[in-house]
Design the sequence.
């Protein structure tokens, strides 16, 4: 069964500090992996999308890594800001048919930045 | 370029009623997908439409249905509402399909069933 697991479930850090969120998946065959940021009560916003051949991708202070061999991804946030407080959702696309891939969602990591 | 627009933003219904939610995708996007989000379950896939045809369907009862029009706008309907249907309903659009392309979400429709 395709699954996406994220850790930790929640995280609290001081403003200005760095943090790393983890995503492990069992989706096969794999097509791509996305990270989304969702502010409370708002729709998710895309941060990055990575295919099999991409190991790292950055979007400002957000850097995502992908290890397709171990089926792991991480999202690193540098110099956190209060506006980074949100839920971060890992989404994996894949299987069963080429051209008709499906998305599997993680349950998210709730990040809180405190001043 | 306008984003994905969902209406209404908030609504309250009573058990047994039905509800219709609307979604206008980003101009040029032909794929529209719908998701239910609850605190305990996270994002759950409902269905995806592409060029007026349902391409994929999640594991929801037949009370949940949708359709897509020739202009790519989409609606979803929930009949015989239950308390457990209270959730944030999100619509997302993409160029050719949610599995291949980045999907862009709307702000969602908050449904409360009392």
Sequence:
């Amino acid at each position: 069964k395709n699954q996406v697991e994220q850790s930790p479930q929640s995280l609290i850090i001081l403003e200005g500090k760095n943090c790393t969120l983890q995503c492990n998946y069992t989706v096969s065959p794999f097509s791509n992996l996305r990270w989304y940021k969702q502010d409370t009560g708002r729709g998710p916003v895309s941060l990055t999308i990575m295919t099999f051949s991409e190991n790292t991708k950055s979007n400002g202070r957000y850097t995502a890594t992908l290890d397709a061999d171990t089926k792991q991804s991480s999202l690193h946030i540098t110099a956190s800001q209060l506006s980074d407080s949100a839920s971060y959702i890992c989404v994996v696309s894949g299987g069963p048919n080429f051209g008709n891939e499906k998305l599997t969602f993680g349950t998210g990591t709730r990040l809180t930045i405190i001043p | 370029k306008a984003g994905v627009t969902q209406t209404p933003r908030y609504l309250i219904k009573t058990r047994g009623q039905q509800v219709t939610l609307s979604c206008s995708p980003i101009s040029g996007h032909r794929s529209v997908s719908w998701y239910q989000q609850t605190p305990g379950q996270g994002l759950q896939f409902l269905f995806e439409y592409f060029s007026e045809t349902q391409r994929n369907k999640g594991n929801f009862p037949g009370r949940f249905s949708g359709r897509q029009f020739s202009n790519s706008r989409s609606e979803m309907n929930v009949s015989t509402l239950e308390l457990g249907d209270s959730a944030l309903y999100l619509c997302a659009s993409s160029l050719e399909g949610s599995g291949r392309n980045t999907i862009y979400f709307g702000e969602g429709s908050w449904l409360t069933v009392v």
Observations:
- Chain A touches chain B at residues 31-32, 34, 36, 41-46, 49, 89, 93-94, 99-103, 105-108 (CB under 8 Å).
